[in-house]
Amino acid sequence: MSKTPRPPRAAYRCTECGWEAAKWVGRCSECQAWGSVVEASAAPTGRTAAAPVSTRAMPIGQVSVKDAAYRSSGVPELDRVLGGGLVPGAAILLAGEPGVGKSTLLLEVAAQTARYQHRTLYVTGEESASQVRLRADRTGGVHDELYLAAETDLGAVLTHIEQVRPTLLVVDSVQTIGASGIDGVPGGVTQVKEVAAALVRVAKTLNITTVLVGHVTKDGSIAGPRVLEHLVDVVLHFEGDRNSRFRMVRAMKNRFGPIDEVGCFDLGPDGITAVTDPTGLFVEHQNGQVAGTCVAVTMQGRRPLLAEVQALVTPSPLERPRRTTSGLDGSRVAMVLAVLQQHCGIRLHHHDVFASTVGGARLLEPASDLAVAVAIASATIGTAPPAGVVAMGEIGLAGELRRVRDLPQRLAEAARLGFRVAVVPTDRTRPGPRSPESWAVDGMRGLDCPALATALRLLQLQGGASGTAALHAAEG
User: What is d(CA 258, CA 118) in angstroms, rounded to the nearest whole number?
Assistant: First the structure.
């Protein structure tokens, strides 16, 4: 007697993160969300039969690459991040915090694409069509080839795609689109997976460049299942400070280009514009001598940017002095303070220290350690560093300076903007003495310093006549 197959056992799944459990619980053990665990029947098991193929397999050398050629988005900085432009059939995920300017940027891309006589479909699930039209009027994004639809149902979106046949499709956002007949609510794990898979499938079938807007969680990661990032070809992260107009787009994944490029934008009342030379936003006192300031050169992807570091050191009435940072890594600033006290003789245990960057720049790489130390030392003794000096280098716990990557690119950018002297770590791979040496490159002078104390002495921030003579010799 054959046994009757047992029905699939019901499981419970979290609508926020996809965690599964054999029985219902009130709180998800994975993402700690309350009331997000719902019943979801198990998928039936069975063998998949062979099916007809859409296109025959062929040798890779015979596959045409004409359909995958880059096409400009009309926004140069976005083309830079994408590796050249939009690729037909590519699925792009753009994520960012609320209000950072994702919709404004994509409306500009849609309008520029329409101006090139490429039909564009903008689907909004968060705003009404009238609201998007008002923003388009303000930014000059109205065009006959730009189609607009306000939908929250996947079936309706697919119908619009069949009717319009766009070259570019923008869905704002993927968390607001729901698929009928699928468990969960719009924005849940199951819904997001189904909606994203359907849109990517249409993009590949009809050769439509598709841009999906994604939400982010409190910690800045992309909301929804991790499989969402695997489904798409490009993952872009749009970031920026609410108190600053400066915005940056980073490529976290890119199947068609590099992932170490950064695009810079300026978000204003009239829309968003590309910033091809953003250094001026982060440097205020390039030609002036102000105590407590120093200019650093940081690498944003493959683009060198100059940013000014400011420091303020004041006597503290508190038993535990304050250490406040803005735009800097607080733990690295604390390490720099400890090195200044231990190896440079600068006593800061009775002083409040405030360190920040200008213009909302974020300096998180170790190469900015030396600029932070110079700014703090300058603020402590009340003496400004010499004009036209940039500093870059990683500080070790023993007070030594370590080399940084892409030093030639950093020096070339500093020289282009008029800086004359660069204080950099000594190249320990080069034979010879470890004393400070002067060299010239790209129209500027460089000072090799093996340790932080040597750098401060050369900049006249620790006293000593030999340092003044060496600095004048470097300036030439």
Answer: 26
Cβ burial, residue 70 (10 Å; 0-12/13-18/19+): middle
Distance CA 257, CA 301 (A): 13
Low-confidence ranges of the chain (pLDDT < 50): 1, 432-436, 463-476
Q: What's residue 6's pLDDT?
A: 55
Contact call for residues 360 and 244 (beta carbons, < 8 A) = yes
Cα–Cα distance, 121 to 390 (Å, whole number)? 48
Q: State the pTM of this model.
A: 0.77
- C-alpha 390/C-alpha 279 separation (Å) is 13
Annotation: CATH topology of 68-276: Rossmann fold (3.40.50)
Tokens encoding 9:
């056992």
The per-residue DSSP string of 408-472 comes to HHHHHHHHHTT--EEEEE--TTS-S--S-EEEEETTEEEEEESBHHHHHHHTTSS--HHHHHHHH
Domain range annotation of the chain? 10-41, 68-276, 280-475
Cα gap 41→31, rounded to integer Å: 21
Q: Coil, helix or strand for 86?
A: strand
Quick one: how far is CA 339 from the chain centroid?
Answer: 30
Architecture of domain 280-475: 2-Layer Sandwich (3.30)
Contact (CB, 8 A) for 391 and 296: yes
Q: Which residues pair with 216 in a beta bridge?
A: 222
Question: Is residue 439 a contact partner of residue 423, using CB atoms and an 8 Å limit?
Answer: no
User: How far apart (Å, rounded) are the C-alpha atoms in residues 460 and 339?
Assistant: 18
Nearest to 361 by CA among 214, 240, 457, 467: 240
- pLDDT attached to residue 397: 95
